Model the fold of this input.
Amino acid sequence: MRSQFVVLLIVLATSAWFCPRPLHAQLPPLPDRIAASAAHSEPVPKDSGLAPTSSGQRPLALRELPRNLLHDQKFLWLRPFRLKRSDVPWAAALVGATAALIATDRPVGQELSDSPPGSGYAFSRRVSQFSGWATDLGVAGAFYLVGHWRSDARARETGLLAAQAVLDSIIIVEILKTVTQRPRPTRAAGRVRNHNADGQFFAGGRAFPSGHAAQAWALATVIAQQYRHQRWVAPIAYGLAGMVSVARVTQRKHFPADIFVGSVLGYLIGRYVYHTYAHDPPATPADFPVQSRRWLPQVDLPAPNLRGDTAATITLTWQF
Done:
């Protein structure tokens, strides 16, 4: 119980790294954004409350990646010492969910370790083989190369942001693994019990939190945010990240709490990187379909013609 209490304190501290707020919460009205974009003015600020600075942004460059990683790590590790009142509700919810999952980890881990591996284990093992840091960085690299080859600024930026988010998650997760030292539920092939699958911390393991889940969700979040105007991208990206996360449990590599904390960290890291470094695309009504609602119709009457015709047309439009 003492070790689990210490882990909850670690989760509480790390949960204060980020303060998620509504996307584009402080953007100017849509007409002003469209006018600013049309006039080729300075980029419209995109302050979501996550970025440590609000200075002007330049196009991302690959050579800036090491410096950005150092900046991220400094900001993230100092964030727990800058708590705000708005952090408390959602941080408490995260700690409560983690505590509930830790309480169920032992029966779940022992049930899986006692069950012989079947077709579900084989599928989960294959999913794990095709995921991980190498695959995630490969996907990020593919976005960058395709964007560079096709002169697609969005794809190129997506590759850089995704690689940065994945690397940030690797660094943070590896440090937490070293601190918590939680053994995995089973050893090789999912057949041999490891530490009796009791889910204890500080016992010489490297299961908490899940690196696969953190990296997959960091990658998925950046892609989903960058291509948020394409409605099919987010379900696919998050769906694949969820499949990777669940596979790590059914493969007997992680307890549910490992997956939950890793997934949350990856998602929040992805949002942090996006909101800190990404550039806004040109402001168009398609990018922001729900900005204001006018329930009263607008009536457009044509000017009278010189011939004195009495016929006229009325156009009724609603803006959603």
